[in-house]
Every structure is written in structure tokens, then in C-alpha cells.
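Section 3.1 - Work completed
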Amino acid sequence: MRDAREAPNTDWPLIWLKRWIWIYFFLLIFEGALRKWIIPPLSGPLLIIRDPVVVMIYIQAYRCGRFTLKTMWPFAAIALAIIPLAVTQVILGVNTVPIALYGLRSYLLHLPLIVVMAETLTADDLRRLGRWLLILSVPMTVLLVSQFNSPSLSWINAGAGEGAKQIGSAGGHIRPAGTFSYGIGAQCFVMYVAAFLIYALTRPGLYRRRLLWPAGIATVAAIPVLGSRTVLFTMGFLVIFCLVAGASSTARLFGFARMLLLLLVFAALASQLPFFEEASDTLSARWENASGTEGDVQDVLSNRILGSVESAIDSAGAAPWLGQGVGMGSNFAAVLTTGAASFLLAEGEWPRVVLEFGPVFGLGFMAMRVFLAIYVVLQAMRSLKRKDLLAWLLVPAVIPLLLMSIMEQPTYQGFMVFGVGLCLTAARAMRPATKSHRYAVGQNSGSRFKFALGD
């Protein structure tokens, strides 16, 4: 049975739908360059440059029969709860129209892209996306190194907005941002590249060596340059997921042994680069400085995860039943009300949502994200049982973003949505590689994406 997502080359509506998804992908990576270097006077409007693109994706998806109530009902239910809440807050004078609209676009507009991607993209599309991530990893690392070695006030380290600059790290260095507005984008980018890189290393012939070797060295080299403990934690979980996958099948042991050997070679080669030692020392210094305030690894993970949830529960007891305004916790609201970006409500996502939405709607919205995270993990586990690893390897990068990232921050939001879409697509579209190591579309995954734990 032919998968419904495959279509002949003459299916122009589907072709254009995929092209719009590709535009979204490239804007996610390069919109920061537009804001910082190319059109800085339009830095504010460019913050939401992907919004009209995602609207075009939905219009085209509707024309292709991939934007229907049957697949979008969870997001329709969320919208039916949050939109009346936002309207009520405006009527009662709790919120203003511009801030409410920004909040609604942050929480509602991009979420359906997850399903559109899972409905539309094939395994061959995933292969192309992975190839582009690996291709871009090399110049991205070169740019990251240039930013790491440049003064904090140099043009290459400009932030998005007038007078903005990058976050400091240690030893007088900044946390480089690459083509993104700030460092969080580069961190998410490297985490996704690492997942595709490890997947490719377990599948000889998937990509050419002349792509894998530079990408592998660049990815390893970028880790200390970024100076991010989040990236280190994610890489650690990625290693654990690799071990789980290897232990679940003796047939994979040879592939994982080969992958581990190649990673060690990449690390050895990367360590010879002139900047690597200084970057490693900077990361070590930052780790020690942060450990002095946040504690060891266990304390950090506990504070970032359990601490955020506990803070949300505490906020639920103090927040008004109708909340303080959808979007009120965003930097957009802070700039409108105070003239400067700041945390008006809370720094963490869980207490911020609870304070904006109120205890019932806020905890309900976060519970939806938890349910979606569980669903993604279950789908990735099923893919693992079918002997394909990509969805499983994407989980360590995707799930923390889904559960903890700030949706009112466009870069976080974009990587969260696109990552979940990639993960679900991989879980449904991938099949074990043939002898020629080509991708194939799953024959038994069904003709349409459905939100059901038993599908």
C-alpha cells in the first residue's frame, strides 16, 4: 500500500507545501542574521518573520487535505480555551490587545506545524534536512569560533536590537550565537546536528564521508566554544540514549561500536584545532562558576526541572483565576509597558504560563505539553523497535524544549515546534535501511497522522 504522503512530481500543491516548510527551516536558522547584520532597523518586525510563512503553510496544507479537524482537533481544543480567556482578560482590563495578540501567536499559531510536518514530509525529506544541517554545521562552527575570539562589542557579536550584545561566558569571552539572534539558537542547532550525525554514523552510506567527517569535527569543536551546560547535558543524554538503543539489539552493537570509534577520532582531530584548548578552559571555568551558585549536576537538573514545576504550583496558589494576561510574561510585553526587555512575571516557563493563564488554564496548558512529550517518546520507542533510530536520537534535544522552553521566545518556539515535527515524522516515515541504505516511506504507518496512543 502506497503511503499517502508520497505524491508524483506533478502534485504542485504538495510541492509548494514542502517548499514553504523549507522556507520556515532556513528562516529559523538565518533570521538572526537578518536582525543583527543585514536589516537591524527592522529587528523588531523580523522577530515574527516566520509567522506569515507558517500561515502560508497552513493554507497550502488545507489545499492538500493535510489541515483538517480530524488531525488538528487537539490544537482546536486548546484554541477554544485560550482565545476566550485572552478576550475576557482584555475586556476586564487585565491585558491589552497588542500583548494578548502576541501571546496568542506565541502559544497557538505555530503548534499545528507539528502535525503538518508529520502529515507531509517523507523519509527522503528528512534525509535532505539532515544533509543540510550537516552542511551548515561547518560554516556555523567557523562563525562561532570567530565570535568566540572576537571582543564582546565587535560587530560580529552584535545582538538583535539597538545596543544589544551577546551574553557573557567566562574569561572575557561571550557565548557565541552564530547566525542566530542569541546563543540559544546555536545551542539548539548543534543539538539537532548531533542527533543526525550520530544517526548517519550508524548507517554507513547514508551520507558521503566528505560531508560526515567535516561535520563531525565541526560539531565536536562547537561544544566547548558554545560554553553551554545545557548542550553538555543534552549530549550526555544523547550518549545514554545511544547505549539504550545498542543494548536493546545485539545487531546494533557493531554499528554503535563503529560510531563510537568515529566520534573519538573526531574528538581527537578537533582537539588539535588552535582554539579548542582555550574554549575548553573557558567552558570549565564557566562550569565551576555556575556550580558555585547552582550546585552540582544533580542540583542543576533538579532545579531546572522540578524547581520550575514546583514554582508553577506555588504560583497557582497566588495567581488570579483568570491570570494576569496571556503574553504578559513576554519581552514584547515588557518593552511595551516598561520600555526595556525584562521578566515581568517569571523567568521559568511553567510559572510564567500559570501566572499568565491562571491556575486552571495554565496548569492545563502545561499538562498538554507533558502529554505531547509522552506521546513523542512512545512514538520514538516504537520506531526504535522497528530498528530505526532517528526519532529516538532526536528525543534528548526535543523533549526538554517541549517541556521547558519559553514559547514566547521565537527561537525556542521555532526549534521546539520544528523538532517535534521532525521527531514524529521520523517515527512514522522511516524504515530500516536496505542494502543500498536508501530511505523508504513506511508502508504500515497509515495514510493520515492521528493523535492516538494506540494508532
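Second construct:
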Amino acid sequence: MRSGEGSESGAGRPARPGAGGVVSRPGLFWRLGASGRVTVVSAAPGSGKTVLLRSWIAEAGLAERAAWVPVARGEGDPQRFWLAVLGALRRTAPGSGLVRELTAAPDLDGWAIVERLLKDLAPLEDRLWLMVDDVHELGSAEALQQLELLLMRAPDELRFVLATRHDVRLGLHRLRLEGELTEIRADDLRFSLGEARELFQGAGVELPEPALVLLHERTEGWAAGLRLAVLSLAGHPDPERFAAEFSGSERTVAEYLLAEVLERQSEGVRLLLLRTSVLERVSGPLADALTGGSDGERVLQDLEEANAFVVALDARRFWFRCHHLFADLLQLELRRTAPDQVTALHQVAAEWFAGHGFPVEAIRHAQAAQDWGLAVRLLGDHWPGLQLGGQAATVHAILAGFPGQAAEADAELAGLVAADELAQGSLETAERYLGLAARGSASVPAGRRGQVQVLLGVVRLLLARQRGNRPAVAEEAQQLQAVAEAPEAAQSGLGEELRGLVLISLGITEYWTAQLDDAERHLEQGIALARRIGRPFLEFTGLAYLAAVTVFRSSYARAAERSRQAVELARRHGWTDEPTAAIAYVVPATGLAWQGRLEEAEAWIQRAERTIRPEAEPTTGFGVQYVRGLIELARGRDHEAVASFRAAERLAGRLAAPQYLVARTRALLVHALVRLGETERAEQALAGFSDQDRDRGEIRIAIAVLRLAQGDPLAAAAVLAPVLESAAPVTVRTWLAHPFMLEAIARDALGDPAAAGRAIECALDGVEPDHVLFPFLIYPAPRLLERHARECARHAAIVSEILGLLPAEPGGDGKMASARLRGAVEETARLIEPLSQSEIRVLRYLPTNLSAREIARELSVSLNTVRTHMRHLFAKLGVHRRSEAVVGARALGLLAPSPRAP
């Protein structure tokens, strides 16, 4: 009996399998039961073909209606084969009364047997299954032709199941075209993780989940591999260690693969398999380079067709690989039989991969051959492309393959290690290796010295960018720009890549230092260049930061769209966990927090927090902590807000120059401290600023918050005056709502309701385009807002929404005030003219947070069409703003009521 297959050599009918160790596979059982006239089960040895068919026969209750015919190894006698078929059919219930007995005779012809069998079965009325196991062993071409004849002419109720290790010549293409052929192949037979778990549990083997997952990955779901593991694990003292070490060199697996696969191959095929076992993937030309032959491609394709544990990796069938366990066995055999060839084989592979444009594999084989000089040169040559291609993790893994102290003696390798340490977030270690490389650069061969200098320049640029050091970035950018314009750089294509890196690095640093005009210009140029030269990682980085710039220079909707593009690019290329992705996640978190949509903001900021390493990425970490503080402040979780703003300030201390966010962070920190009643700590926080810094708009706002808390509205109004008059401007236009709301509170406290009303009107004017609610959440004044809405209906809809979000005031109720305001708008709502169907479709999207462009995309129309419909909507509803249109439409029953409506 073969391990894992259980093929029988004598009995004509399979025995009913026992319950232990047999896994029910209902999906495959269903396919077998619903199959056409012929079913082919084709897969490598040990894939579970025989076990599957036996289990299905038992499960479906077909023992009396299934004729089982095992083909003996190397069967070349058609007469013996057909007599076995007749005997098996006669032992079934339907066939016993139809198929006549026949005995062997020297002149008995296989064709005559088939004709007789067709005549006997012509009256067949009940379903009968003829199951031929190991069809590949049928070595007689004549017998195969006779079997094909039977397949074509058999009565409808006779169904065939053919189990084979590889496809045989039976003319099955005709059945395939007629839809009468069902094919179950290796991929279908692989055990899923759940089926592997059931197999182990059925055998009474308890295996921890991580060990089970590892074992399933190593065996690739191969049935025999899993069953052999079950046998080896019985009574094993350390199952987890066994799973970690399980391979094709494990004795029972090795014996099986040697006997069933390797020893069945010709000498030339064995040589190819052994020599190419040093590779993770192999092509025909590469196999020829390692064997000195010329037919590698044909041999690999034949092995795949024969299900000999060789798998094609692409549709063209150019690249192949061996099953993991088979590869383990081949490597063991190579080391046992030809250990002196291993190094030379790796060297040949390194040269071939390098010459055919596969640098990563070339480097790994150079390392395996311990040709460290070649490995360093190859990595140095291809590092820019790997870095700009978003393959920092690949570079990190490659560098781990060098000896521990190698970088101490090789300046180029030291530079590469510096770049890797920077990518991993170890800024201080990166600086140390950068210094080591600079000191040793004189020892670099003259032919490579220029290339090493470019490497060190790029690392210095990236390090300065990480620290937000704009002068250093500008200096390195200027030097790299000169390199990029050199003829040799242009010829190699490196020039444009360096220019793209320089532009985006400048833009990022300018963003962190509040040079927003320059940042936008450089980022847009860098993104355009990245797209032109086909560098999606550069494009992704630029888009993420351009979205961040757009938050402060344009609308939240446009920033969100750019962020969406960056996230989509990251998802497409597998970069969603890259530190740069944190910036793309922070942008929607910022916009949503300012709009008061805190639950949605929370989801985005959590993604950013999972991605970023704050100490390694101080600039990005600073931004993440700042937005976390915004969200906590809007929620009223003031202790958590203080912690976040403090963390942001600590990260700012690691940066080369003060960042423009620092003043805003300190301003919001003061506000959180004031809300906690810690006015003394708030004063101390403000005391750290110079007179020049205290004159910044954001700091003046913080001082006003503190003065109001101290009961001095007059001092608050005085400190706000330069901000309101633009003499002390704020960085972001939406921040203007802060001083106006504080001005309204101060003027109301001073007994000047008219001035308070004017200030609230200015605050609402500033925030309505982007629907910014944050200032009204952290400076809650529901009484003032309600009074203002009664006196001026221009902003009634947004005021209603704000009041619906605010907690109740002592002696009042924000939600009740919101309801009263909605009622005022609803009372005046009327439809001047009926809406068209197109206008109604647009109206349904107005309560959402989609921009007009996004609505156009949803409706598959142009942006101009949506804008035209919106203008018509506003005119017919007699309103001027989107929020007012929503309130009016709800009052008229054109839209469902707001979920926040009482």
C-alpha cells in the first residue's frame, strides 16, 4: 500500500474506510456526484486521490455500484487489464446480471473484449461507476486506445472515474468541449487549513494552532505530507519544534519522495532537479546554465505535466518551482552526493540572474556562494531602484545575509547599512554608519567612488528629511541635482529618479516647516515626474504629503480625494503598512475630526497609529499625536488630550527646527489644561514662549481661552484683537473660527450681544464651506448659537447640527434648541417648481459627506452636470446652501428625516 494513497493491487472493490484519519470533503464529494460522463482525478503521488475516491464511495453508499480497477505498475498487457475490468464490473449489483464471464486465452483480443462489454452493457438502466486507479501505469498504447473507445461509446448510465498521476492520451478534449468531462486536479486536492486540523484531530494528535499553520504551509496541503506528519507526531514530546523542523529531509517523507518521484526519473532529469535545487525558481535557460544542457525548458514542462512536484509559476510556463518538501529532499541529496558543486552552482546562478535583470536573486546567490564583494557591488548598483521602488524590507533582508562585522571594513556596505538603519527608524545608528562610510570612502575603488558618493548623498538627504531639517535637505538636494544632470546619470536613468526624490523630499520638508506654497509646487512636480518614469512608490509618497498640504491650502474634500488616491496606490502595491501611509491616514482623520465626525476619525487615526513608529519617524509621529489630541479634545477626554499633545511636543524636540504645528499643539494643550481647571499649568505652558512666539495667532487664542477661564473677558478680547484684524494671522483659515467664537463669548460676557452676534456670524461664514464643527465643540455656546439663529437664518441648518452634537447646558438643552431651529427652517420650506428625476438623484447624495466630484463619480456623470443640478435644486427649494437644501428637502418629505432628529 502506498503511503497517503492506499492503492490496492488485488481486490476489485475498495474496502470501506474506517473513521480514524479520514477527512470528509463534501465539496469534492459533490463534484464527483454531479460530474459528467468522465471524471479525471489527476495529481502527484500522495495527493489523496485514492483516499478521496474511497471516502466518496463510502459516503455516497456506492459500494454495490462502483467497480474498482487498480492498474498494476507498468501494466503492458491489454488482456490482463480488460479481464480485471470485466471482473470488477461483474462484482457490482448492476453489472452482475449483464456482464458475461470471460477467461484468459492466448488469442483473446482487447478490441473484442471492449465490443463484447459494450454489447453486454447496452441494456444498463441503473447508474454504474467504473473507477480505474493509477491509469498512468497503463503502458500499452493499444489498451489506452481501447479505453478511449469505451469512454466514447459507453451507455449513458456508465460513468467513469480515472485516477492518474499525470494526464494520459485518451482524447478527452472532445468530452471537455461537450461538457461531459469533470477534472479534479492538484489544487483541488490540497487540504485546506481546516481540513488539516480535522485530519490531526481525527488521528488524536493535539497540535497548537501556530504549529498547525506552519505545517500546513510547509506541506502546501499535500495529503501524504500531512499524513506522514501525523504518523511522526504520534507521541512526539515537542510538537511545535517538530512542525518548525518538518521538511522533505524528514526520514519518512524523504523515503516516500525518493521512491515515488526522484528514482523514477531518468539520469538527465535527476541531474537537472538536483542542480536546480539551489534555486527558489527556475526557467529552462537557467536550468541549462546550471546543467550545461539545452533542453531544460522541455524537461521542466514535462515534469509539470507529469505532476512530478514541479509547478509552473506563470501562464507562459517559463518559470517553475518545486514543491517545498521535494525541494528540501533535492537539496539534501545534492549536499550528500555532490557537496563540492554547491558553491559553484550559486555563483553560476548569481551571474545568470544579474545578467538577466533579477538583482535581488543575483545578490542572494552571491551571498550563498560567500562572494561578498560581488554581493556588495550588485546591491550598490541596484539600491536606488530598490529604495525608490518601495522595497526597503527586501534590502533589509538582504543586508541581514552579510557577516556581522562586514560593514566595518567596507565603506560601500556601511553606506548601505546606514540607508537600511534609516529605513528601519534607527536615526542615530544610521548617522554612525554614515560617518563610517564617509571616513572610509577614500578606500573605495575609483570606478565605484562616484556611485558611493551618490548613495551617501541620498542617505544624508533622507536623514535630514526625517529630522525636518530644511537647510540640510536643500543643501543635499542641490548636490544631488547636479549629479542628476550629469550625462552618465541621464544615460543610466538615475538622473530622473534622483530629481524625483529631490523634489518630493523638498516638498515634504517644506510641508513640515510651513512653506506650503513651495511644498505644493515641489510635490506636484515630483508626483508628475514619478508617474512619467514609472516609480509608484515615489508617487505614493508625494501624494500622501500633497494631501496633507491640501488640508491647509484648499478644501477637506480635495485633500480627502488625494489621500484616497495615495491609499489606493498603497493597497495596490502592498505598502499599506509603510510609515508614509500614516500620513495618508492622518489626512482624513484630520478632516473628519474638524467636521465633528469623531467615530470615523477614530478609525483612520488608529490605522495611522498602527503604522507609525513615532520615535523612528518623529515628523510623522508628531502629526499623528497632534490629530489624536484633536479627537480626544473634541470628545471631552481632556486628560487623554493632554497626554497626546505632550507626546507631540516630545517628538518635536527631536526635530532640527521648530515646526509650525508646535504653536497650534501648545495652544490646544493650554485649552485642555484650562478645561481640567489647571490654569496654573496652562500659564506655565505659555510662559515657555518668547514675546515673538506669543504674538502668533494660535498662541493668542490660547491666552484668550485662559483669560476667559480666569473671568477676564476684557483681557481676552484685547488679546484676540490682532488676530481678528489679521495682524497676528493663523496658519490655517479654518482656525479663524476659534478667535471669532472666543470673541463672541467675551463680548456676550461684556454685555454686547450685537458684537457677539457679528462674531458668531463671522465664525460660521468661515467654517460652513468645509462643514467644520470642531471650534463649536471645544467652545460650546449653545445659548449664543440659538439666539443668533433666531435673529439670522442664514446658517440655521449648520447651527441646528452643531446644537444637536452639544451636551446640554445647565438650564438648557442643546438638542431641544437644535429641534427648534430645524422647525424654523422647515416652516419656511416650499418647493417653487417640481424636481426632475436627475435632480432627485443628486438630492439623495446631499446629506452625505461626498463632494460634488464624488457624487458625479457615483452617478457616472460629469462634475458640471452635478453642479448644474445642484444650482437648480437650490433655486427650486429657495435656499442658498447645501445644508439648507437638505433641511428643506426633509421638511417636504423629499428625503428621509435626519437620524439625529428627535
